[in-house]
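Researcher: Here's the sequence for the chain we discussed earlier.
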Amino acid sequence: GGPPVDAAVTLPELSMDLVRELESLAPFGEGNPEPRFQLAGVRLDTVEMLKGLHAKMTLSYAGTRTRALRFGRAPAPAEVPPCGPVAAVVSPEREVWRGEERLTLRVHDMTEGGSAMPGPEHGGRLVDCRHVADAPRYLHGLAQGKAGVIGLVRSASQARSRFRHALFNRMEEAVRMLAAASPRIVLVPFSALKESGGAEGFEVVWLSPPPSLAALSSPLLERAARVHLLFTPEELEEERRFYQTATIDQPKMEVLYQGLRRQLADGPAVVSVADLLGRATTVSLNRVAIEAGLRVFEDLGLVTRDASGAMALVRGVKAELATSPTYRAYSTLAERFEEVYGILVRQPERLAEMMWRRHGDGDAAD
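Model: Thanks. This is the structure I predict for it:
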């Protein structure tokens, strides 16, 4: 039902130039209906409720983002979930805000679905939600009626602290909402990607970026119904800083060893990571790098650790850092993450091809 649609268009085709052309056809009314345009395959990035009745939204398509308003009947979450592909019937309008003209779309009708979107999409299985404003609502809606939702984070420790960290406060509401939902979201570290057992058809949500490109080739991701990117650009930058400070190298190891010698000068003792962190003023370290460095010293036989956790120096040992498996793993953390960072920032469309290339799904590389 409803008035007919004048044309099917893409979001970039709805411009202020088109608005001016349409205004020349006014006034609209009986015998001269207002032009309406069909949009398909656009993404609903944000939804903000206005007085419980209207909705202010952001629609995007191939890098174009446009403000949209729907009056009188706001879309329900089940109809148009944030970040999902939608089809909409709209009329472009001129809006003046603080003396400046801007394009706004008045939404007459909106439904979930539509054709596949360009950009970081792969047959609907990879959903880029890094611009979604209401992450708790998105997660809650995702958990309803699904086979399960797995939230991937960097590590087990981050899984425990995820919703207490200042950067992640936007997720706290989601935890409270999901506590009453069935099934509930499960937070696991990226290391769980190595597991091959389990069911199929669940949703995977990246609450943190993957630590390396190797994490993209996993049985868990292959069996997922969809993979959602739900970390913000700010969180991506935070992860980049984490890996830069967690990486260990020769200068960092020298600073750590000097600090260790000071603490153990009087004999075996439980090493204070906080003290090592406080004294490491000439290099950039975090607790992960320090704990990895201590394991490197154990690998090389430079220190011993007893059952109580007390460490002792071993004199006269000479060893090459590269012979430590811990050093080899942690010396390349930043380098491996930089590959992921480059793809997420500059080539997100490659993600789906890398995750599902062996399946031959959609337009993935063979």
